[in-house]
Specification:
The protein has helices spanning 13-20, 54-73, 158-163, 187-192, 205-220, 238-249, 277-283, 306-311, 331-347, 384-397, 400-403; strands at 84-94, 99-107, 116-124, 131-138, 167-172, 226-236, 255-259, 317-323, 366-367, 371-376. It is α/β, with parallel strands linked by helices and 404 residues long. The chain has a single domain (13-398), classed as Rossmann fold, CATH 3.40.50. Helix 5 (205-220) packs across helix 6. The protein has a ten-stranded mixed beta sheet with strand order 1-2-3-5-4-6-7-8-10-9, sandwiched between helices. It is globular, with a radius of gyration of 20 Å. It binds alpha-D-glucopyranuronic acid. Residues 139, 237-238, 262-263, 275, 280, 283, 328 line the site of alpha-D-glucopyranuronic acid. Alpha-D-glucopyranuronic acid binds next to helix 7.
Length: 404
């Protein structure tokens, strides 16, 4: 497939040189070396029949979902019947009186050893209605989501979200499952299933973290201070892959945001640009189900590409963001996955993005109907610029100006 966009962003020579001097060798960071490729058709059932109506899309969506469950992330279990929420603390004068801080423990079961998600939420005090919320799946040090606010990190600008009348919520992904390969002998995997009973399509760690975010949505549905119809799930890098899978699966999220998610997140695999399926699965094999290993060095054999994953979010809102120096994550591949998912929005009555739309230039968020993208100056990270652009899009999507 040729790139339909007239590129307005291109990687700088400095960024390419820096990427090439990195740890991994034989990785392509040069656009001209992307091989010709054909993306699997989104709007055709696996048997070749075209998908032409919203009703057919409902069935197609299920088909795509099952492929990603079976071949990439693994199947996740139902929520445990005995999970429950415990309000650990409520502080109505947090953030100098601007917010109410709630600390909620989500017990993922009653048996000994049940993992607990320690959720922190800051809810704006200045509001007359339930607050729309952003949930960060935090894949970095817990200090980044410090409930005391002694540490304030750009990775989670909670004060700025609260100032914009959003509730800021976050949890540490390690509360659900550790970020290491241990044979799935710990965390939620071991709690719900004996490691020896695992199948080639049993859930990996990204699926477990995404499942954890859905348990937070279960909680949001019970909290009258949160407008659960206007909630965004977001994450960066491995957290961005997780947020995308969560928003794809769980239709309760009104907005799905994926920042610098790269390989096995938003980036198209067939471009062979940046991180490969070989590198990611050798370094992080716990992230995926075992079946995914069949595609190592065989990206062309994948039954899907990542634009199908993005399309699972339709017609709800999606925002993909990239960083200029983050060639490992293939910014253009992330953009193209978004653009090639647009037919799903069109079929479901939203404009999405028009075919052939050009990748926007640096620092100029592009907002379509239900779909948005930006590429920011700088490194692989989640920055205030990203958050504020995401909040601008949420404002528009949630019609905040109309119902403020
Ligand atoms: C590694 C990995 C990426 C991942 C990133 C992160 O670089 O190769 O796939 O996105 O870590 O989570 O920061």
């Amino acid at each position: 497939m040729s790139d339909p966009s007239q590129a307005t962003w291109t990687a700088t020579q400095e960024a390419i040189a820096k990427a090439e001097s990195g740890h991994w060798k034989n990785i392509n960071y040069v656009e001209e070396r992307v091989p010709p490729y054909t993306l699997p058709e989104l709007m055709r059932f696996q048997d070749g029949t075209p998908v032409k109506t919203p009703e057919q899309w409902t069935r197609r969506r299920q088909e795509i979902l099952e492929l990603f469950q079976d071949q990439l992330y693994g199947f996740s279990p139902e929520p445990p019947k005995d999970m429950h929420f415990e309000t650990v603390d409520i502080d109505a004068s947090a953030m100098d009186g601007n917010a109410t801080r709630k600390l909620i423990d989500i017990h993922l079961g009653k048996s000994p050893g049940a993992p607990v998600i320690h959720l922190v939420i800051f809810i704006p005090n200045k509001r007359t209605k339930p607050a729309p919320a952003f949930l960060l799946i935090c894949n970095r040090d817990k200090n980044n989501i410090d409930p005391t606010r002694a540490v304030k990190s750009d990775f989670w600008p909670a004060e700025q979200l609260v100032n914009r009348d959003y509730a800021a919520a976050a949890f540490f992904n390690g509360d659900v499952a550790p970020d290491k390969y241990d044979g799935f002998t710990t965390g939620i995997h071991a709690y719900l299933q004996k490691p020896e009973e695992r199948k080639p399509n049993s859930w990996g760690t990204i699926a477990a973290w995404a499942w954890g975010a859905s348990r937070v949505m279960d909680y949001f549905e019970t909290d009258p201070d949160i407008d659960d119809k206007k909630c965004a799930v977001t994450g960066h890098s491995r957290g961005g892959k997780t947020a995308l899978w969560c928003g794809a699966l769980d239709q309760r999220w009104a907005l799905t945001i994926s920042n610098c998610s790269g390989c096995s997140g938003a980036a198209l695999a067939r471009r062979h640009f940046g991180e490969s399926l070989s590198v990611i699965q050798n370094a992080f094999k716990h992230w995926f189900c075992q079946n995914y290993r069949a595609y190592i060095d065989k990206e062309e054999d994948l039954p899907f590409d990542q634009h199908w994953l993005v399309a699972l979010v339709a017609p709800r809102a999606v925002y993909i963001s990239s960083a200029d120096e983050d060639l490992w994550a293939d910014p253009r591949g992330e953009w193209l996955a978004l653009l090639n998912a647009a037919p799903a929005w069109k079929l479901l009555g939203r404009n999405g993005l028009d075919e052939g739309t050009a990748m926007p230039p640096l620092n100029k968020p592009l907002k379509g109907d239900g779909m948005a993208y930006h590429i920011r100056t700088g490194e692989h990270n989640y920055k205030v610029f990203d958050w504020m652009a995401h909040a601008d899009f949420a404002d528009a999507e949630f019609n905040r100006n109309q119902d403020a």
